[in-house]
Structures are given as C-alpha cells and as structure tokens.
Design brief:
This is D-alanyl-D-alanine carboxypeptidase-like core domain-containing protein. With about 190 residues, the protein is α+β, with helices and mostly antiparallel strands. The chain is built from 7 helices and 4 strands; from the N terminus they run αααβαααβαββ. It binds zinc ion.
C-alpha cells in the first residue's frame, strides 16, 4: 500500500463507530434469542442496518451476501470497522438507465464504459458486486476481503468489490477501470 492510500480517520467517524458498536452490544441479547449460535453475526447486521438505513442487501447472490456479511462481522467485532452497502444488486433496467445516462454525460460509449458497465457486463446485475462505504471500511475490505473471496477489482473505484470464488484464493488481476476488464467480453 502506498502513502496515498492512507485513509484519514475523522473524529466524527470514530464517534459513529463507537455508537454503532454500543448499539450492537445492546442488541446482543435479542440476537441471542433469535439465533443463539449467531448472535454476534446478527447483532452486527442489525447495528449496521441502523447505521446505514438506506442499504439493501436483497438480490445479492446468496454466496456473495454471506461472504459480505461474514467479512463485515469480522471487521466489526475484531477490528472495530464499519462496512455499509451503498449499492449491491441492480436490475438490468436500472443498470441500463445508469449506463445510458453516463453515455449521455460523456458523449461516448467507450468513455461511459470506464465508469459504468452496460447491464450484460455488470457484476451488480449478476448480484456479485458490492459498492461499500465508508473509505475506512473499504480499505479494511481491500486488505482482508480475500479471506471471503471479496476483492477490489478496479483502480478507479475504491468502493467496488466483487465476490470472486473462482480465483481459488488468489486476488484477480485488478483493472484500471471497469471497461478494461478481460473478465467481460468486449462489446464496443
Ligand atoms: Zn460497483
């Protein structure tokens, strides 16, 4: 990791982490009643759901969702880091709308593909891609996500991770930007 990747830790972030952790501890008894063997896992998901109320994990590939939840439970209880989901599964219509908007904005199909992929190429549509927050959480996932087959896949998107179990524990080659990936077939 280079110096430029160091993530500033503001007082506000530290306070919010502390509050969320207190919440999770308070939720432990209820989580224990619901799932005795998984209380810490469940309390963590509940607390993060309260911290990031807009997040929506529905539609993710079940294995990708499990990996994401397990990873952020680890980050939360062991290292005190929060990881929220900004965007997970997107349906093809939504992805198409985003891609079309980017084509309009940049005036170029090729330029648009460097930031947003068309639906047939998007990991979000397949339910294996997760955009996460905040930067500290993303940095944790970049360092430790491999244990859960979760990898940052693009240089220009610190927030974008994909569930890639097919690489057998080795990080996939990180691409400069979305449209550059050989993982997807070129359509230009
Ligand atoms: Zn993404």
């Amino acid at each position: 990791m280079t110096e430029s990747r160091a993530v500033p830790d503001r007082l506000r972030d530290r306070l919010l982490r502390m509050v969320t952790r207190v919440l999770a501890v308070l939720l432990l008894p209820a989580a224990f009643l619901r799932a005795p063997g998984r209380a810490r896992h469940l309390a963590c998901q509940w607390a993060l759901g309260l911290r990031y109320p807009a997040e929506d994990l529905r539609g993710l590939d079940p294995r990708a969702r499990k990996a994401f939840e397990d990873a952020r439970t680890h980050a939360f209880w062991q290292d005190g880091q929060l990881i929220g989901l900004t965007s997970g599964h997107r349906d093809a219509a939504e992805q198409h709308r985003m891609f079309s908007e980017e084509v309009r904005r940049t005036g170029s199909f090729a330029a648009a593909r460097q930031r947003v992929l068309p639906p047939e190429e998007s990991g979000h549509v397949r339910g294996i891609a997760m955009d996460v927050r905040p930067t500290q959480g993303a940095y944790w996932l970049e360092l430790h996500g491999g244990r859960y087959d979760l990898y940052r896949t693009y240089d220009n998107e610190w927030w974008h991770f994909e569930f890639r179990p097919e690489t057998d524990g080795r990080p996939p080659v990180r691409m400069p930007h979305p449209g550059a990936s050989p993982y997807y077939s070129a359509t230009s």
